[in-house]
Design goal:
Elements: H1 2-67, H2 71-81, H3 92-107, E1 113-120, E2 125-130, E3 133-134, H4 155-162, E4 170-172, H5 175-179, E5 191-198, E6 201-210, H6 213-220, E7 229-235, E8 245-249, H7 266-269, H8 275-278, E9 284-286, E10 292-299, E11 308-316, H9 317-368, H10 382-449, H11 455-483, E12 490-493, H12 494-511, E13 515-520, E14 526-530, H13 532-549, E15 555-563, E16 566-572, H14 603-613, E17 617-622, E18 628-638
Parallel strand pairs: 13-15
Antiparallel strand pairs: 1-2, 1-6, 2-3, 4-5, 5-6, 7-8, 7-11, 9-10, 10-11, 12-14, 14-18, 15-16, 16-18, 17-18
Length: 642
């Protein structure tokens, strides 16, 4: 009946969920349609605004081209052409006065240009009008004509001027602007330059600095749909200090004509702006961002440059999608209330069936992943309980089988190692040891016959003798391992045995600046019945390995404690630990991780054989916190039963 009841409840849930999902899908569809509608409206809005701005910029360029053809300026061109003559042409002051008056009168009804300059062919400013007032020529240059501004001494600017096409408007930043002369703290628009021709030759240039008044007026007339923030940003990847410069910001109260305002960059002013995607330019929208939706359109205000303006509309995401968010919340609340009763009915069944099955499933998954110590907790219905008990019984049997198999394999491997080394050692003793003794004797005789001053040959003979002695040491280690002398059992106290072994290894530890520290928890009343000399050799071997593995100034800890009829001796170092790839070969004869000449690879193999011969066990494990830990387990005999 329990299973049937749960099937019924799950069927009710399956019937209720589609209703909620259908409602959410419907709201999502309406939201997407609303997003497309907003994108179309704001896109059309931005395109209309940019069209008005583009018309204004075109009108300014046409106005500048027309200004280059007025009579007052064309009458001045012959005099401007003579700027390199050694004598100042007659009537120059009168022509300059007429040109200044005309430009002043022109600027009164026309507020487009902030500055007008007339420059000669070398880029030197001869006439300058700021607003409706002319600037007097107060500088003397190398030529005969007076200058309104100091020479720029910018050959690259002059070369740029020579490359301009007559009859076309080009844009740049004049050298005076770069130097800071007449430059505001925030340069919003670039300077426009038109070549001036006389007798078919370019004799000068008309330059105008526009401050963006009419662009501000065009942007102010743009409707603010959906309470959108309107921004105008410059894109110029070739000029990092202008790339991302905010020219206009309806929310921040920034306009192009605010020349004294502090320059603002879009990424720092609006950290939520998708700056990386907006740099691509073009027209589009990004309405899936966390805080705000961004709509953008692009124009190129300067015909001769890759610089572009990006008009942005920023709409707060909550204001844009609030009604759809509320719709989702209403559906979620309704579904929660409808499901509340269902979950109340299903709670008991879930506790009785679903939760025990889930726990059993996690236990099985953990066991298959290698956690063989994991066991099930039988609960829930009787069927699930019996399944958990059966799993625990199976896991216990597999664990016992694994332990028995591992022990048998280790024993077989150890016996095979000992047998192979024993067979090999007998041959090595006769075939290598005697020749080595002869070599050492001959080396000694030859060294005696050398002259007193034969330092070179004597050094070579000493080196050969050292190598022969090292080979003899290796042979002795092999023979010690292969002899397998029977253990001479005797009772000895563990504490004295530990102190003697530490004293034997103390000199090696001192040479490497390593401290040996003993923690004897067993006390003097604990004794072992084994071959004291063989076990002392085992412990000294472990101590020397720990000393060699420890860095200078480290401490090697030796601890002994009694556990269930065994004495456990641990030798702990703070070295690099046990290499994962070499753990299976640590007790293999002739295998060593030490540098060539620093070890024979027989120390641990000999120690393992001696420990097992005395009824003990030897294992190596990684130590918590770093380093390795050698664990020597020996059967003990208490003094009170001797």
């Amino acid at each position: 009946m329990q299973l049937r009841t749960h099937i019924l409840l799950w069927a009710l849930l399956a019937a209720l969920l589609p209703l909620g999902v259908t409602g959410l899908v419907a709201v999502g569809h309406l939201e997407q349609a609303h997003r497309r509608e907003v994108a179309d409206q704001l896109g059309a809005n931005l395109r209309g605004a940019l069209s008005a701005v583009e018309r204004q910029l075109l009108a300014e360029r046409e106005m500048l081209l027309g200004l280059a053809q007025v009579q007052a300026l064309t009458d001045y061109l012959p005099l401007l052409a003579a700027s390199r003559d050694p004598l100042r042409p007659s009537g120059y002051e009168e022509a300059v006065t007429r040109l200044n008056r005309f430009l002043e009168a022109f600027q009164q009804p026309v507020t487009t240009f902030q500055l007008l300059r007339v420059m000669d062919r070398d880029g030197i400013t001869r006439v300058k009008v700021r607003g409706t007032r002319s600037v007097p020529a107060e500088f003397e240059g190398l030529g005969t004509l007076p200058q309104v501004e100091e020479e720029s001494n910018a050959p690259e600017f002059v070369a740029w001027l020579r490359g301009l096409v007559p009859g076309e408007v080009a844009f740049t930043i004049l050298p005076s602007t770069r130097r800071g002369l007449d430059a505001p703290r925030r340069l919003t628009m670039l300077d426009a330059v038109v070549p001036l021709q006389f007798a078919g030759e370019v004799v000068g240039y008309l330059a105008a600095t526009t401050w963006g008044l009419h662009v501000d007026r065009a942007l102010e007339r743009v409707p603010r749909l959906y309470d959108a923030d309107l921004l105008l940003v410059e894109l110029d990847s070739a000029t990092p200090r202008r790339h991302g410069l905010v020219l206009y910001d309806s929310t921040g109260g920034l306009q192009l004509t605010d020349l004294d305002a502090t320059p603002r960059m879009l990424p720092s002013t609006y950290p939520d702006a998708p700056w990386t995607m907006l740099q691509v330019g073009g027209e589009g929208h990004l309405d899936d961002l966390p805080t705000a939706a961004w709509y953008h359109a692009e124009i190129h205000p300067y015909p001769n440059r890759l610089t572009s303006w990006l008009l942005l509309a920023r709409v707060d995401r909550d204001a844009l999608l609030i009604r759809y968010q509320q719709g989702r919340q209403a559906i979620a609340v309704g579904a929660a209330l409808a499901l509340l009763a269902f979950f109340g009915l299903a709670h008991w069944g879930a506790r009785r069936v679903a939760m025990p099955v889930a726990r059993l499933e996690r236990t099985l998954a953990a066991y298959t992943e290698g956690d063989h110590a994991r066991r099930a907790e039988p609960d829930g219905p009787s069927e699930v309980q019996r399944l958990g008990v059966a799993f625990n019984r199976l896991a216990d049997r597999l664990a016992r089988a694994d332990r028995e198999r591992d022990a048998a394999q280790q024993q077989l491997l150890g016996q095979a190692r000992l047998a192979s080394i024993g067979q090999m050692a007998a041959g090595l003793a006769h075939e290598i040891n005697n020749p080595l003794n002869n070599v050492l004797a001959y080396l000694k005789l030859v060294r005696r016959e050398l002259p007193v001053d034969a330092e070179g040959p004597r050094h070579d003979l000493d080196a050969a003798r050292e190598e022969a002695l090292r080979a003899a040491s290796i042979i002795r280690g092999v023979l010690d391992f292969a002899r397998q002398a029977p253990a001479r059992r005797e009772r000895f106290t563990v504490a004295s045995w530990l102190r003697d072994a530490i004293a034997s290894a103390a000199e090696s530890a001192r040479q490497r600046s390593v401290t040996l520290q003993l923690d004897d928890r067993g006390g003097d009343d604990v004794a072992c019945d084994a071959d004291r000399g063989q076990l002392q050799q085992v412990l000294i071997n472990l101590l020397l390995n720990a000393v060699q593995a420890s860095p200078e100034g480290a401490t090697v800890e030796v601890m002994a404690e009694v556990l269930d009829g065994w004495v456990l001796v641990k030798v702990c170092d703070r070295g690099a630990g046990l290499p994962v790839a070499d753990r299976e070969r640590l007790f293999e004869p002739f295998f060593t991780t030490k540098p060539v000449g620093a070890g024979t690879g027989l120390g641990l193999a000999v120690a393992l054989g001696l420990a097992e011969q005395n009824g003990g066990r030897l294992t190596l494990v990684d130590r918590l916190g770093g380093g390795a830990e050698a664990r020597l387990e020996l059967p003990l005999v208490r003094e009170d039963v001797l």
